[in-house]
Design a protein that fits this description.
There is one protein chain. This protein has one domain. The protein is about 30% helix and about 30% strand. It has one helix spanning about 45-65, and strands at about 10-15, 20-25, 30-35. The chain has a 3-stranded antiparallel β-sheet. A hairpin with a 2-residue loop joins strand 1 (about 10-15) and strand 2.
Length: about 70
């Protein structure tokens, strides 16, 4: 089984015109991959709530996923 390497993830909010968009950045050794979420938000508070909910869901999912280095009970 291949060991999964955790990639540093940064999330930011950018203003584009009258709207705000969420931007995810994965930093690799040679390059930074940037993904701009397609949904537009009217306020930074709406965008921040989306980011917070997404990061919370990511933490929950990772806690439910069995890890290969987990110690059996």
């Amino acid at each position: 089984m291949r060991e999964q390497v955790s990639k540093p993830l940064q999330v930011s909010i950018r203003q584009q015109g009258a709207h705000f968009r969420v931007v995810y950045q994965h930093k690799y050794p040679q390059v930074v991959e940037e993904v701009v979420y397609t949904e537009r938000f009217a306020t930074t508070a709406d965008a921040q709530k989306f980011v917070d909910d997404g990061l919370r869901a990511r933490r929950i999912y990772r806690s439910l996923t069995p890890r290969s280095d987990a110690v059996p009970p």
